[in-house]
């Protein structure tokens, strides 16, 4: 049976997780447990084959002063510039989630017939000199620069989080070969809300399909952040039907791209999602997105009927 390779290790979640506004540090474990209780679980293979990023790898996208502050917790204000409490356990979990993303994109590139997921978030607002918006390191940039320098691979990001992923654009001066690793056209964040959002996404997907047909991209990453849902604490863009329609559009396009160019790999990540009133709504959206990806890209049959509860806020 076709499978989704899910890269997960328990240590991705800090053992001493303090109360933070963002509960994203515990999301990998909660998402895995959610999938385990769902009909999608029979399509999932869990792999623990990845390692924490090293200091040298972090330096691909960040200044040494910031990297060393986060590694040591000193100065604390810089170590906590992401808006999250620092602890040695949290540091270790961040290094592992960043390593998870690099390993996922690498595994997909090695085996493009496989769909690979890093169940992670916390990258796309980080800057070379500091963290920002619950994001510590630019895992996307680190992975992209490494894959470009080692293999010449060029990536595209479909970032459907509710918030613009500034880390790629903010790192272009710091890491000039990022312009080749993720070209200026290749960092997609739809704008607008409701029908305007879907229309903009459609235009961006058409652009991506044209670029892929022209051989301008080797791998594609999708992060359908659940904070682009209108009931999210930090979101406003899409109703549930629109959010799922966006996922359907993405995976239909990627399936069409891969029918012509099967060597273009696809990697999934989670990114944002904030529902203190009903955290399961966030996990349910991610799971329904995963079901559509499985159906279109992993030959897992029609899972489009899979529904998880997305509860209206009180
Ligand atoms: Zn977000």
Summarize the structure.
Helices cover 42% and strands 9% of the residues. With 314 residues, the protein is of the alpha/beta class. It is globular.
Structure description:
With 314 residues, the chain is of the alpha/beta class. The chain has a single domain (4-297), classed as Histone deacetylase domain (Arginase, Chain A). Helices cover 42% and strands 9% of the residues. It contains eleven helices and seven strands. A seven-stranded parallel β-sheet has the order 2-1-3-7-6-4-5, with helices on both faces. Helix 10 links the parallel strand 6 and strand 7 (265-269). Helix 1 packs across helix 11 (279-297), helix 5 (88-110) crosses helix 6 and helix 10 packs parallel to helix 11 (279-297). The radius of gyration is 18 Å and the shape is globular. It starts with a strand and ends in a 17-residue tail after the last helix. The structure holds zinc ion (ZN). Residues 161-163, 225, 227, 272 line the site of zinc ion. Zinc ion (ZN) binds at residues 161-163, 225, 227, 272.
């Amino acid at each position: 049976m076709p499978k989704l390779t899910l890269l997960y290790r328990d240590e991705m979640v800090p053992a001493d997780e303090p109360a933070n506004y963002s509960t994203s540090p515990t999301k990998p474990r909660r998402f895995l447990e959610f999938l385990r209780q769902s009909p999608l679980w029979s399509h999932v293979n869990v792999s623990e084959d990845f390692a924490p990023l090293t200091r040298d790898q972090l330096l691909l996208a960040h200044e040494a002063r910031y990297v060393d502050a986060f590694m040591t917790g000193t100065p604390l204000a810089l170590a906590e510039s992401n808006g999250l409490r620092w602890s040695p356990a949290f540091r270790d979990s961040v290094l592992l989630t960043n390593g998870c993303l690099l390993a996922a994109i690498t595994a997909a590139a090695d085996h493009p017939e496989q769909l690979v997921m890093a169940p992670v978030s916390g990258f796309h607002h980080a800057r070379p000199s500091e963290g920002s918006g619950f994001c510590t390191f630019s895992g996307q940039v680190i992975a992209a620069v490494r894959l470009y320098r080692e293999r010449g691979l060029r990536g595209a990001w479909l970032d459907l989080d509710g918030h613009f992923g500034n880390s790629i654009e903010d790192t272009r001066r710091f890491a000039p070969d990022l312009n080749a690793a993720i070209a200026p056209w290749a960092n997609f964040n739809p704008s607008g809300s409701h029908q305007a959002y879907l229309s903009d996404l459609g235009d961006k997907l058409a652009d991506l399909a044209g670029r892929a047909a022209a051989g301008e991209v080797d791998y594609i990453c999708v992060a359908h952040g659940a904070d682009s849902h209108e009931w999210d604490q930090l979101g406003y863009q899409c109703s549930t039907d629109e959010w799922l329609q966006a996922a359907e559009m993405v995976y239909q396009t990627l399936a069409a791209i891969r029918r012509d160019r099967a060597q273009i790999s696809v990697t999934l990540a989670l990114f944002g999602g904030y529902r203190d009133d009903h955290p399961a709504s966030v996990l349910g959206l991610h799971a329904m997105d995963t079901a559509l990806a499985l159906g279109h890209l992993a030959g897992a049959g029609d899972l489009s009927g899979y529904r998880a509860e997305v509860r209206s806020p009180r």
